[in-house]
Amino acid sequence: MTLPVICLMGPTAAGKTALALELAEKFTLDIVSVDSALIYRGMNIGTAKPTPAILKQFPHHLIDICEPTESYSAGQFLDDVKKVIASLHQKNKVPLLVGGTMLYYRALQQGLARLPVANKVLRDELDSLRIQYGTSYLHQKLRQVDPISAQRIHHHDSQRLQRALEVFMASGKPLSDFLIEHQPITPYRFINIVISPFQRHILHSRIASRFSEMMTDGFLEEVRSLFSREELSRELPAMRCVGYRQLLGYCANEYSLDEAINKGIIATRQMAKRQITWLRSQPDAVWFNSENGLPINEVTSYLCDKAPELID
Q1: What is the number of alpha carbons within 13 Å of residue 219 lying toward its C-beta?
Q2: Shortest CA distance to 223 belongs to which of 33, 20, 45, 97?
Q3: 210 CA to centre of own chain
Q4: Pair 7, 128 in one domain
Q5: Over the range 19-31, which residues count as b (16 or more CB within 10 Å of their CB) and which as e?
Q6: Number of domains observed in the structure of the chain
Q7: Which DSSP category does 40 fall into?
């Protein structure tokens, strides 16, 4: 019999964390974070990390496992999450995976392509091109060598553009060729749940409100503290997280605080759009509307039907 793994997905600001806490309490589930920003210690406000009080009541796996100086790949996540899931299943517990890093979900459910290892020389070369010519230039270069990836990657997403070009330069093979999806053989039965406001303007309003709340809670002070640490380059993955990257630009006197906030909100909207695009491509995901509050009853009913283990 396959073992259940509940995956609670959705765009940023959809209400995933709040619903996860309700479900964890109702069914005594263990929460496993699927978020590439929540892994970093000391980055709490801008990542909307659950408070210490919440984490004490509902321990989360795979939160605060890295320093901001460290890189953490989808491959590392795959290794870590498999260990967590296996440990929980041995204790007859059902894991509730929650977060918005779709690459991590894809790695777990669809497998992970074995890409060439990171090459610092090529990365530095591409970074110089980005600084000199901009991300649109990198997107144009990628269209020439890997049009499939270029169509999939936004022309402002410098990190993914540079990685796609790096893969081609290192191997002579387009990234898209590496990403031929295959369904891995796993003992898991994935129950994929998506929550989101179905109207885009409501999601956008929530994103703006949450960013404002984070600023009130001390997000700028958190970023200033990170900016003051000499070992934290702005090109580190942690410093490129949405929101942090834009406020770091303000700390470096590149634009005003109002511009930084506006850039952060726009970047968050763009991230949400990419999340929704990927989620819509998943045929087995069941969507629930979170416009008028958390769909607790609907999701509870669905889970009881799909995972009778929860009520045995």
Answers
A1: 24
A2: 45
A3: 17
A4: no
A5: bbbebbeebebbb
A6: 2
A7: B
109, 222: one domain: yes
Q: Give the residue numbers spanning the domain of 164.
A: 120-178
For residue 276, the one-letter residue type is I
Torsion on CA atoms 27, 15, 290, 102, rounded to nearest 10: -90
Cα distances (Å, whole numbers) of residue 70 to 37, 64, 238, 255, 288: 12, 12, 8, 28, 36
Q: What are the tokens at 32?
A: 């496993």
Q: Are residues 232 and 295 in the same domain?
A: yes
What is the value of pTM for the model shown? 0.81
Average pLDDT over residues 182-188: 68
Q: pLDDT of 30-75, one tens digit each?
A: 999 999 999 999 999 999 999 999 999 999 999 999 999 999 999 8
Is residue 247 within 8 A of residue 226, CB to CB? The reply is no
- The CATH number of whichever domain residue 232 belongs to comes to 3.40.50.300
